[in-house]
Design brief:
The chain is mostly helical. It is built from 14 helices and 4 strands. The protein has helices at 3-12, 14-34, 65-79, 82-92, 97-103, 114-125, 145-203, 208-249, 257-260, 263-285, 291-381, 405-430, 437-444, 457-471, and strands at 39-47, 126-130, 135-142, 388-392. It starts with a helix and ends in a 5-residue tail after the last helix.
């Protein structure tokens, strides 16, 4: 059926079309008036990701977009949870007999408690929506406008209380746990400190590092003295070797360096030379039998004996000095060995004290960290605010949200028009009539002899009066 044929059929059956549209609109209006009215009340909640009462979250960076979306979805799930709905039932005392009887029309036969059934009903009528902002809107539907606003605000308060409980309760448990841990950590710290102090007192050490430095300095001094003693021992050993060789050869020790360097021996040698000179003078002057000559001979012999005795002492002193130098070298070597042993003992003691000191430091760090966490948990356990705030409370709606009579009537006009067109087309198909030239040419396929135009009296009268007016004598 073409559009022109549809228009012809609609004009021919316009009454049926109007009747169907009117019936549809009246039915929609009647149903809209008969249906029970439902009121919706919305409360807006502002979600803040920052918690000013939390110490641990004070340095947290802003949430990323996907994190914020996840946070808002979590808040939505919390609002629509049975925990929050059960708190609403308890806060509003909906489980009381009179109130529950008004809400629960009849028993559903599930055997659930009144509170559980009320929770399911409230969650069924609750709708929570999130947006790109941090605002979450909770809408509750009810036949009673006052009850709708009351429950919506109750859901907001219950959500805030639940968020506070969810944030505070773990902090309280953590604070209690940290208190117990602090006692154990404090005992470990005191034990480590006591052990370190006892070791200091037992070893009579004030500062192991300071004592170690002193012993290092002492070892260095001993090392320097040992080097010098080795040089002296080598020198005296060389002199002793020369004296022994001279003694073995029977040579006079007056050529030895120590003898030559001895001032007393040199003095005796000088005196002996002078005595020899006087003896020669006396021999020339008085002769060898003269008493003075004999007395001078005795003095010269005494000087020679004294010189020989002194050289013998010097030679013996060389051996004694060599022996003493070797003994000093050996003593310094023993002192160095003892000092090294003492240093090794101090290093071992230092290592042991270092381990004990590190144990104390580790216990202190563990205690400090636990103390900080304990303080954080105690502060958070005393929080009385949450990251949720009521942006705009729910108010009692003045108009019902459903049924929407005007919208239903407008929709019924559209539906009625479509239904009227369908009925007209159905009637036209079942009762086919010729309504235009196209129907004869296309449907019946018969020859066309003529076409009768619709009678238009006013048009014909004007045409006839015009022709007669031109036919009158004297007319223009």
């Amino acid at each position: 059926m073409s559009l022109q044929q549809l228009l012809h059929a609609l004009r021919a059956r316009f009454g049926v079309f109007v009747l169907v549209v009117a019936a549809t609109v009246l039915a929609a209006a009647a149903v809209s008036l008969i249906l029970p009215k439902t009121y919706k009340s919305t409360v807006s909640l502002l979600m803040d990701t920052r918690n000013e009462q939390s110490i641990s979250n004070s340095q947290r960076p802003p949430l990323q977009p996907h994190e914020r979306a996840s946070f808002l979805e979590t808040q939505k799930d919390i609002i629509t949870s049975k925990k929050v709905a059960r708190k609403v039932v308890q806060d509003l005392k909906l489980a009381e007999e009179s109130t529950a009887r008004a809400i629960l029309k009849d028993d559903d036969g599930s055997g659930a408690s009144i509170e559980d059934r009320l929770v399911d009903i409230l969650l069924k009528e609750l709708k929570v929506e999130t947006s790109q902002s941090n605002v979450v809107q909770a809408t509750f539907s009810s036949p009673d406008p006052g009850f709708a606003a009351l429950v919506a605000n109750a859901f907001a308060r219950a959500h805030i209380d639940t968020m506070l409980e969810l944030s505070v309760e773990p902090a309280r448990e953590a604070a209690t746990w940290f208190d117990d841990q602090l006692k154990s950590l404090r005992a470990n710290l005191e034990q480590a400190q006591t052990k370190l102090t006892d070791n200091y007192q037992l070893r009579q050490i004030v500062s192991p590092d300071e004592r170690l430095d002193v012993e290092h300095t002492r070892l260095g001094a001993l090392s320097d003295e040992a080097v010098k003693a080795q040089e002296q021992a080598f020198q005296w050993s060389s002199r002793e070797q020369q004296a022994r060789e001279a003694t073995k050869r029977g040579a006079s020790p007056d050529r030895l360096p120590d003898v030559l360097d001895n001032p007393f021996i040199q003095k005796l040698k000088g005196e002996l030379q002078q005595a020899e000179s006087r003896l020669q003078q006396l021999a020339t002057q008085y002769g060898r039998n003269h008493p003075q000559f004999q007395r001078q001979v005795s003095e010269n012999a005494s000087l020679r004996e004294k010189l020989a005795a002194e050289m013998t002492k010097v030679v013996a002193g060389i051996g004694t000095s060599a022996l003493l130098s070797r003994q000093r070298e050996a003593a310094l070597a023993q002192a160095m060995a003892a000092q090294r042993t003492r240093l090794l003992g101090l290093k071992q003691t230092r290592n042991e004290l270092t381990v004990l000191r590190r144990n104390v430091e580790s216990a202190e760090r563990a205690y400090d960290i636990a103390m900080q966490r304990s303080v954080t948990s105690q502060v958070e356990s005393r929080a009385n605010q949450t990251t949720v705030a009521v942006l705009s409370p729910a108010i009692v709606p003045s108009k019902p949200s459903s049924p929407k009579v005007a919208l239903n009537i407008a929709l019924s006009l559209v539906v009625g028009a479509m239904l009227g067109l369908g009925i007209v087309m159905l009637l036209e198909i079942t009762d086919r009539r010729v309504r235009s030239l196209d129907d004869l040419e296309n449907a019946w396929n018969v020859p066309l002899l003529g076409e009768l135009k619709p009678w238009r009296p006013a048009t014909r009268l004007l045409a006839w009066s015009g022709r007669n007016h031109r036919a009158l004598p004297g007319s223009a």
